[in-house]
Design a protein that fits this description.
- 37% of the residues are buried.
- The strands form 2 sheets. A 6-stranded mixed sheet has the order 6-7-8-3-9-10, with helices on both faces. A 4-stranded antiparallel sheet has the order 2-1-4-5, with helices on one face.
- It has helices at 47-55, 77-84, 102-113, 118-131, 147-159, 177-194, 205-211, 238-245; strands spanning 6-15, 24-32, 36-40, 62-67, 70-71, 87-90, 165-169, 197-201, 214-219, 222-227.
- It is of the alpha/beta class and 252 residues long.
- Helix 5 (147-159) runs parallel beside helix 6 (177-194).
- It is built from 8 helices and 10 strands.
- Helices cover 35% and strands 23% of the residues.
- It starts with 5 loop residues before the first strand and ends in a 7-residue tail after the last helix.
- The protein has a single domain (34-56, 87-245), classed as 3-Layer(aba) Sandwich (Rossmann fold).
Length: 252
């Protein structure tokens, strides 16, 4: 990997909370422009925490987090704001504002930027909702949509500003297999148009493996695998192998 292509770099990143073992311990990871990277691991192993560290929402206790050449570990809020403008984030459970319409939810990142006129924002929101199959849902509220539709609305919000980096935290959680396939097709289309870095977390290991080009597994604070999605089930690490295969017997 070349330094010029590196978008996110984590070096020796450690994070712990009082009275508990470290959730992340010495994590090293380098991600390049145009990559589609997937992260798996047991529940509560620190996957979502890693996303928040990349966005500067949570500070690392040790190590370095560099986003597009900017060191964000210990950075001031002004610096973090500039970095966050380059990142689109799909949170777990969508995190749509229930007091806003779908159009208002999707427009939120553009409104926060404050550099666009209302008519341009409206046009972009319409185009994005059309792209995710939600044209005509502008005036509805999140509770009027199905689970799959809410997920698509959240994806529209995460990508509306066409960020260089998009982070998807459980993009298909709770969805049926057909809807899951449709969501991954949509994510692939959006990534192909923009060409930025995609970082995705999912508990649906098989669906994620089929979509990403590179995959990592986090376990007890460490990255136990980083490589080819097709080869992970045959990893030499028994922890990784058992988790991916779903075997009952093993170190887990």
């Amino acid at each position: 990997m070349t330094a010029s292509a590196t978008v996110i770099e984590l070096a020796g990143v450690t994070k712990r909370f009082s009275g508990r073992p470290p959730l992340l311990e010495g994590v090293d990871l380098r991600l390049e422009k145009g990559e589609i990277f997937g992260l798996i691991g047991p529940a509560a192993c620190g996957k979502s925490l890693l996303c928040k560290l990349m966005c500067g929402l949570v500070p690392a206790d040790a190590g370095r987090v560099v986003v597009e050449g900017v060191e964000i570990t210990g950075a001031r809020e002004r610096t973090l704001f500039g970095v966050r403008q380059k990142i689109g984030m799909l949170f777990q459970n969508n995190a749509l504002f229930d007091f806003m319409t779908i159009a208002e939810n999707v427009a939120f990142p553009l409104v926060r930027r404050g550099d666009l006129q209302t008519d341009e924002i409206d046009a972009r929101v319409y185009d994005r909702l059309k792209a995710v199959g939600l044209a005509g849902s502008e005036k509805k509220t999140p509770n009027e949509l199905s689970g799959g539709m809410r997920k698509r609305a959240a994806i529209a919000r995460a990508t509306i500003a066409e960020p260089d980096i998009v982070i998807y935290d459980e993009p298909t959680a709770g969805l049926d297999p057909v809807t899951t396939s449709k969501i991954y097709d949509l994510l692939g289309e959006l990534q192909a148009k923009r060409g930025g870095l995609v970082f995705a977390i999912s508990s649906d290991v098989e669906a994620l493996r089929r979509w990403v080009r590179r995959i990592g597994m986090l376990y007890r604070g460490q990255l136990r695998y980083d490589g080819d999605p097709a080869a992970i089930a045959d990893s030499s690490d028994p922890v990784v192998r058992q988790f991916v295969r779903g075997d009952l017997e093993g170190p887990l």
